[in-house]
Amino acid sequence: MTDIQTWFILAALSAAALLIGAAALHLLPKLGEGGKAASVWLCKAPGLDVMITYFTVLPMFTGIIYGAAYWGSWYGWLVGLLAGVSGQVVGLLIWTVLHELTHLKHVKGPRIVGHINARVGRVRNHAAVWTTALAVPVFWFLRVAEYVVYPPLTWLIRLPKYNHADWVNVSRHKFNGLVGHDLIWCLYCDWMTGIWSLGGEMLRNVESFWCPIRFDSAKKCANCKVDYPDIDGGWAPSDGTMADVVAVLDKHYPGPDNTNPWFGHPARLTVSAKPQPAASTEAADQPSQGQEGE
To answer: Which pTM does this prediction carry?
Structure first.
């Protein structure tokens, strides 16, 4: 086979694998109680992490590995990566068309994509939304860091533990009328927002524990205090001394046997300084009243 033929086969296999995976996800809730339970597990961490890996970075890694083995050197890596990504794009476009054809009632009604197309133009809207897809590997590696980097800190310095499923879950597939293009991009945002918010929560603990000093820039303090409320809730002044920082640490982290959350963390409101019970994800697990499993 020529290099072009090999590239097309690799891209086609990538697209086929994703379409088969999507078909399995649509079928799963229809396979009785076991299928519904499996579907729920795949909608939140850690099951969601497995599913996202399959649909996002696995085709890229597979393409790179195959390309390196077949063509060798950096050329093979690049060609394999492009084949994997091309297969992802084609698979997504095919799924979008098929999903919209099976939900024509919703396609003909009000839609996010149609409304934004009318406001900014179809080409600019679609170019912009596809540009956001470049961040997918970034969020995937951030998710890996949440598994690998943060957990050791919960026993080394007793930062609070978190139930990842309270953040990393998806539920927008249950929204009535969200189909095709709108559905896939809203699920992307659903997944992305949870990962980013969990990472921010973890960083709050890291920042307040190791570096509780206000920034010299008032503008930066104002911008960051939304995500890092301890900036206005106890950090040492930017023009202070190391004695001020030590005083802050003495005040907010009284001993080695306590959980050490950021200053405003809910755990500080409990008697034992232990994290409160995780927020329920029951709402995200309930059967859809819209298009669950469609």
So the answer is: 0.87
Range from 64-73, 241-250, 255-264, 273-282 carrying the lowest mean pLDDT: 273-282
Phi and psi torsions of 236, nearest 5°: -65, 150
Considering the chain, what is the average pLDDT of its residues? 90
DSSP states along 230-268: GGTTTPBPTT--HHHHHHHHHHH---TTS----TT-GGG
Token pair listed for 178? 């969200």
Axis-axis angle for helices 73-101, 180-210 (nearest 10): 120
Q: How far apart (Å, rounded) are the C-alpha atoms in residues 229 and 222?
A: 10
Q: Where are the beta strands (DSSP E) in 16-123?
A: none
CA 17 → CA 13, 42, 56, 279, distances in Å?
6, 18, 12, 35
Which H helix or E strand runs over 109? none
Instruction: Please provide the DSSP assignment of 134-203 as one string.
Output: GGHHHHHHHHHHHHHTSHHHHHHS-PPP--GGGTSB--GGGSTT--HHHHHHHHHHHHHHHHHHHHHHHH
Q: Is the CA virtual torsion 261, 263, 267, 270 positive or negative?
A: positive
How buried is 69 (Cβ within 10 angstroms: 0-12 exposed, 13-18 middle, 19+ buried)?
exposed
136-160 pLDDT, tens digit each? 999 999 999 999 999 999 999 999 9
* Residues 156-209: tens digit of each pLDDT: 999 999 999 999 999 999 999 999 999 999 999 999 999 999 999 999 999 999
The single-letter code of the amino acid at 63 is G
Residue 120 falls in which region: left (phi positive, over 0), alpha (psi -120 to 50) or beta: alpha
Which H or E element spans position 275? none
